[in-house]
Amino acid sequence: QVQPVESGGGLVQAGGSLRLSCAASGSNFGGYSVGWFRQAPGKDREFGAAIRFSGSSTVYSDSLKGRFTISMDNAKKTVYLQMNNLKPEDTAVYYCAASDKYYSSNNYYTVAETYRYWGQGTQVTVSS
Fold first, then answer.
1. Element (H or E) spanning 42, and its range?
2. pLDDT (tens digit, 9 = 90+) per residue, 52-101?
3. What DSSP element (H or E) covers 67?
């Protein structure tokens, strides 16, 4: 069983960059797909990006594509979310989640219910 642990959040000015990390505690991410979700105050949790089993493919929400990049290290111990050109509307708690379910379609990995293991979240605040 893997437990995701997020880090790297903080306060940044609009236009800046941050890199979030999601470390696999207790195991590694081999055999798991890993997704990043975010939740802004008063809003529902929304999908951001996912990397499927051991980095075989990636999927992004339309709103983040081009600014955010998800990647996994070779040891499959850490998944990163590189966030560039940040905007105030990116302010949210960012969650990392892992899933051991296999689906042929990437679409299933954009849904929170696909993921069984969740981190505690890391706060990202973008000032204008």
1. none
2. 986 779 999 998 989 999 999 988 899 999 999 999 999 999 999 999 99
3. none
Question: What is the b/e burial string over 95-124, where b = at least 16 CB atoms within 10 angstroms of the residue's CB?
Answer: bbbbbeeeeeeeebbbebebbebbbebbeb
118 touches 103 (CB < 8 A) = no
In whole angstroms, what is the distance from residue 19 CA to residue 79 CA? 10
For the chain, list the strands marked E by DSSP.
3-7, 10-13, 18-25, 33-39, 46-51, 58-60, 68-72, 78-83, 92-99, 117-118, 122-127
Locate tokens 């892992």: which residue? 98
Quote the CA–CA distance of 85 and 32 in Å, as a whole number. Answer: 29
Which residues lie below 8 Å from residue 110, measured CB to CB, with a gap of 6+? 35, 47, 50, 59, 61
